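Hi W., the iron/sulfur cluster complex you wanted:
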Amino acid sequence: MSAEVIRHVLGISGGKDSAALAVFMKNEHPEIKIEYFFTDTGSELPEVYDYLIRLEAFLGQEINRLNSERDFEYWLRKYNNFLPSVQQRWCTINMKLKPFEAWIKPTVDQGGKIISYVAIRADEDRSGYRSDTPGIEVVFPLKDANIDKAGVTHILKDAGLDLPAYYKWRSRSGCTFCFFQQKIEWVRLREEHPDKFEEAKNLEKTALSHGSPFTWSQHESLEEMSKPERIEQIKAEYDNRLQRVKNNARASKRLSPFIDESFTDCEVDEIFDIDEVYGRGEVSSSCVVCHK
Ligand code: SF4
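Structure:
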C-alpha cells in the first residue's frame, strides 16, 4: 500500500501576518516542506506584488500564484453588477477560496492530507479558514508560539523584510478596491494610485447604474468622496483620531515582550494602534483569507 500523501500549504495574503508566518516556519521548521500560495484576484495592490518577490527571495522558493479562471468584472456581471460587500462576499469565495480548493483537490480526492498553516496571532481570537472537507487540517503556529502583533513585526524586521510598503498609507492587503477599506484609505488610494481609484469609481458607477444597493464605502459614492471639501473632512477626522491614539500608545509599550529598543516610534505606533487609528477592530474589519 502506498504511503499517505501529506501536503503542507501556507497562504500568503500580502499582509504582514502570513509573511511573518512563512519566515517563522522557514526559521523554526526548515524540515517541513511547505508549499506557499497566493490567490491572485488580479486587482491586488502593486506593493503586494513587490512584497511577494522580496518574500520569495528570503524563502528561496517560489510562491505559487493561484488565479481565478475569471476576472473581477466577469464575476461582477455574474452577480447582477452588485458590488461585493461584508454581507455578500462573493469576491473572496470565487476569487480566493475556490482557486485554493481547486489547487488542493487532486490531493484530497486521492485520499491525501492537507495541513494548512494559518497566520492567526496569539493576540487574536478567531478561527481562520476552516474547511468542511475531510482531509484538511488547519494549524496556527503563531498562536501556538504565543507570537502577537509586535512579535510579527519583530520577525519581519529580523528577516530584513520589514512591513509591506502599503502599511504607510493603508492597513490591509487585498484588492485595490476592497470594501473593507476605511474612508481615509480610499482618500489615500486616490493619492497613491489614482488610476486604481478611477478604476474602482468606474466599477461603482456601473454597479449603481444597474441598481446595486452597495457603494464601495458605506453611505457615499467614490464620486462624492472625491470632492475637495469631503477629502479635507476625512483627513481631519483621521488626524484627530491618530493624535488621540498616539497619546495613549506610549503607556502600552510594556505590554508586549517583543518590543525592544530596535523598534522605531513609528513601528510602535503601528503595532498598537493601527486598528484604533483607522477606527475599527481588526477582526470585524478584515478577512483571514485576504488580509492576513
Ligand atoms: S481583498 Fe476585499 S475585495 Fe478583494 S477578495 Fe478580499 S474581501 Fe473581496
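Residues 29 and 180 are 34 Å apart (CA to CA).

W.
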